[in-house]
Fold these 3 entries.
Entry 1:
Amino acid sequence: MALPAPPPARVFAELDTAPAVLGRSGPPALPGREVHVSGSAELSARPDRARVSLRLGSRKEAAGAARSSVSRRLEYIAHSARQRGIPEENMTVTEDFSRVENTYQMEAEVCIIFSDFGKMQNVCNLLTEKLGTAVTISPPHFYHTPEAIDTLRRQVCVAAVGNTRRKAQEVCRLFGQSLGTPLLIKEEETKEWGGHIDSHLPRSPDSLTLQERIQSATAHASSRVVAVFEIKAKENRRNKLL
């Protein structure tokens, strides 16, 4: 049986010849000598927001009774959330009032946005305990704000640049040289993808645990950077002491 073909060679770094760069302070760059390197990084960010929907309703023969039943529960939900530091602007209430046959039906939905998942669990647990079947609480929907995604993109690019510079330093150290200033830094490739659940069995979204939901909503990003640095001549230790 023939052996599989070896993987293609990867270029860790290469030395190139280019015109010397003038006007730089410190030890002079070696004329026409550069080090070309590439580096990459991969980072992830957990979701920073969660949206929970709470549904409640009442059907009564009298319109006022239906409204009053729902209003009392809405007031309790809002009060409980405010007590735990949820700002008013993070709560949205929609109401629907209709007549069904000979009765009046009042339905309402409360959407609450949480940035603190611990507070989210406390509020949901309290409402489940106090209101029971009088309220239906949906599983939390985790997501990222645009600011969180922008931060992840910046961080992964900076990490890739740092890895690239460390590679260049190691190459220069290997050959007894000193790394100079960067001549080119370019982000060549970026990738972004969502999280996944470490399970081989297909599962319904409603059956996921809280941690599995967070894992599924975690964002991942990678960046690959290429850079060119000049190579400086090492300072003479005796001259440096003088």
Entry 2:
Amino acid sequence: QLAGLAVIAFGLWLRFGGVMADLASDKKSPEYFFMGLYVLVGAGAIMTTVGFFGCCGAARESQCLLGAFFACLLVIFAAEITAGVFAFIGKKVAIQEAQKIYEDIYDDYMKNPGGKVNKTIYHYHVALQCCGKDSMEQTGLPCPENIQLPKASNCLVEIQNVIDAHLHLVGIIGIAIAGTTIFGMIFSMVLCCAIRNTRDMI
């Protein structure tokens, strides 16, 4: 249950807190990345529910509930492995999608510097602490005032770094949860066998 709640909190923090939340506040956002976070939150909710039934099975010493708990953990473990593989494969797609969104906004701004896109591109620059999309000096772009000069013209690189860092955190959490799931399956079977042996003795 604690692991499930931790996953829910982590997924919601990635979605609604930090840099990714700033990028998502605009109409254009990397939906591929956020779909993965919604799946993560859903998995956390399922884990919390399964944990509750596992506690009930242990408290009532029910072999049926413990067996169902083991089966659910096995399904969750398989889903985690599958999601991890898809996240690794889809990382490049998520980065390309986010970079394409910035490039479209950048091109719109260059065509009409005084339009509505001015606020949008500035929002991206503030969130990523960058300005521009190439190595040339950027002039006329709405850039943050206190931006660091080495990062003044590499927003595409910053987008890649941000998504890489967040997916790295998701990977660490996924490994920790997978380990917890394995221990849960082992202990549920040990408890189930102990209950069976106790009843046989009686």
Entry 3:
Amino acid sequence: VSMGRTLVELFYDVVSPYSWLGFEVLCRYQHIWNIDLRFRPAFLGGIMQATGNKPPAMLPKRAEYMLKDIKRMAKYYQVPVQISEDDFQRVLGTGTLGAMRFITAIDMTQPRYLEPLSREFWIHFWSQHEDISQPENILAVARQAGLSSELAQKLLEMISSPAVKNRLRETTEEAIKYGAFGMPAVVAHFNAEPHLFFGSDRLELLGSVIGE
């Protein structure tokens, strides 16, 4: 971290539409605020399991509210999340472990692609409603993000390696250690201590805490 800059870590999983909203807002603000933004791909399933949390959409009233909420936020932040009732079932039935391992592999090897690749996964999953657990779809996402087919193929082979699996597990455990119980989990390191903010609707508060 350069002098005087606040390190802000964003723990996210592409299964989470709120993570996409938080990601895009922080991407915009990283050039306005005095922050070093660090993307930390983690696994939401692992966080849910460790903390006994459940997907919010499993509560019917909350699911009803979430539909409206995400639509409003998508419009306000100009992020193309497309959400309908069917999505809740679709999301519960789709594992993002492979996608998050793929994103972890790019973070370990070519981190400059981390932002565009993560964004492309959200676009394919939340705008185009594709099944991103399928290897051919993962490769298509990688192509859209500007990765060569050689690199994409190499990363796909890496996702079953212990190094990638361990890295994703460690990042997930780190988020839990900071107190995360869902996503996005944003951790600002300010005045020598970590400050956890949950969700994409606490970013004004984050700015206020770090003096922005």
